[in-house]
Every structure is written in C-alpha cells, then in structure tokens.
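Reviewers of the previous submission asked for a worked example of the structure-prediction workflow described in the proposal, so we include one complete record here. The input consisted solely of the amino acid sequence. No template or homolog information was supplied to the procedure at any stage.
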Amino acid sequence: MLFTLTSILTLAAFAADWIHFRRQRRRGTPARRAFILWAVATDLLPLVSILVGAVSRDNDTPLMHFYMWLFWAWILTVTPRLLYYVFHFLGLRRSGLVAAALLTLFLLWGTTLGRTRIRVNRVEIRSDRIPEAFDGFRFVQFSDAHVGALVRPSRELTRLSDTINALRPDAVFFTGDLVNIRSSELNERTMTLLQRIAGPVWSVTGNHDVGTYIRDSIRYPASVEARKVVERQRAMGWCVLEDTTVYLRRGADSISLTGVSFDPALRERRHDRHLPADNLPASYAGVPASLYNITLVHVPQLWEAVTALGYGDLTLSGHVHSMQFKIRPWGRGWSPAVWIYDHWSGRYDEGRHTLYVNDGTGYVAYPMRLGAWPEVTLFTLKRCE
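From that input alone, the workflow returned the following structure tokens.
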C-alpha cells in the first residue's frame, strides 16, 4: 500500500512539476532554473531508494535508516510543493505559499514532538464475565516498538518505560513488532532499557519479529532470527506467549490470557482484510470458555476468528499504526488505513467482545507520526452485573 501511494505521488509530482514549469516557461531566470533542478532531484529520491536496494546484499539497520530518512526528505520536499501548485493553479499564489509553509511545519512537528510524545489513552472494559477479584484490574498495552528504527533509542525507550511505570499497572501486555528487521536490534543497551519496564510483561510476536524481512537469509535464517527475538525477550524477564494460554490469578479467581504468534506464512497477506486462522484453535486447547479471556494477537484481522471460537472477551492488537497518519476531527478520526483494514485503530465492540487496536509507539518507513501519536493504553476491568 505504501509503495502504491508513493508511486502515485511520484508520478503526480513529475506531472505537476512539468505542468507548472510549462506554464511558467517565459521566466527563464537563474532562480527558476535552480528551482527546476531542485524539483527534479527531489522527485527522483524514490528512484534512488530503489537503486540502492537493488545493489544491496542486505538490509541492516544503517541501510534501513538511510531508506527512512530518504523517504522523509521526499515527503518534506514534494508534498508542500504539490499543495502550492494547487493554490497557484487557482490563482492563489500567496495563499499557496502560506499553505505550503504550514504543511512543512506540520511535517517537522510530526518528525519531532509528534514522533516522540507518548499519548496515554484510558479505556474501561465492563463485563459481567469479569470475576470479582479482577474488578479494578489495571494493565497497560503497548505495541510496535520497532526498536531498530528508532532515531534516539535511549531517549525514546526511556520515555516509554517511564510512561508505563508512572501508570503503576498490575500487568503489561506487548502486542508484537519489538524489532524492525532482525534480532541484533535487541542489543545489550536496548534490552537494558526495556528491562526498566516494571513487570510482569507478557508479549507476542509480530510480523517484523519473525525474520521474514531479512534479505541476506543465508547468513541470517528467518527461523533462527525469530527464535533469537523470543529468547532475548525472555532474557529480559518477559513471558512470550507462543500460541498458548496462561492463567492470571487473583485470590480465588482466574482469567485466561492467550497469546497468538505471528505466522510467517502470512507475510505476503499481512495487509489482507481477512486472514486464515487454521492454527488458532490450538492456542485455546483445553481453555474453559466460561473464563473471561484476554487474547494478544498482533494482527487485528484475526479478531473475527478469535470470537468465532468463543474467546477474546477482550482482544488486543497493533500492527497498523494508523499508517502513522490520522486526521482527528472526531472520534476515531480518519486514516488511509481505512482503505485496507476493517479495524485499524482504537476500540471496537461486538456483543460481549471488544477489540482494541493500539497505534503503537515506534515507526517504520518514515520517521514521522502525523496525528497518529505514539500510544500507551491503560485498561481497567470493571465487573458489572
């Protein structure tokens, strides 16, 4: 989807530049020629990314940062120019300059505070299935950290752990995509920073955790990388749930907590509206349906399959990030993610079942968050009769 949008915008930029310069061709000043060269150079940035990718054997962290900042430079230079052309075509040149300047400032905001300032959302879940001992149970969900893509890992992960710890939750649930490409992103420094999160922490793997995006699969086999990601989480003291269920107990009462791993076979279908769930029943084997169940699953497209089995009173997911762009004039707001996903951000209720899609704290593709701010969610369970 991102590649398609980029391709469309790239073609639109070339076309808009050509039309604009054709209309202005009588102005053959040095400044105009310099502007033409600058416009063409910035239009070609996606092609540079493609060429670099074609000659690269691997996609290690420095190269992914190069791609990320190249895409950022393209967004920052091309989109304000396209907006200016629209106003200029309507004869509103000065208004176009103002609009382009405001858009540039907004993009810079998204690269700085918008990318790093964590928003805490508070959600109350009411159900008569919640046991009495779990009335008032508080837990945090965070998701999609993508630690290998972080611009300033020490600062950003410290802010994340401080935010979570300040909420003093009874438990912490992480819903996948801890790394961006490979296990080496979970180095000693990163693991130490993540260990600052006061436990207990339960987690599941996401599509970025299972090694399927590594280009040099000979040196770094996906299955080996996936296992290392799990092992390093466990070394941090996290409990990684791999298609299994555990029981959380308070007093004489229990609830079930199920974790569903991302299936590497779904890599090419990870953005499909509906996904197969052939292995899902094994995650709930022997789990009493009478117990209140919380399910952690990275991709929200499996929600219907979870509820069809009679579980997932509360399902927690991530994956979408709202594509790191959200317009918030009302409620959930709007994001290009609606073109791909049925459930893409926030809370969804269907009968006794609730799905919550966390917008995540990290970022991929470009180092910006525009409206889809980094999110930590604090849930409180409330028993109702």
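The CA atoms of residues 133 and 253 lie 6 Å apart. We consider this example representative of the routine output the project will generate in years two and three.
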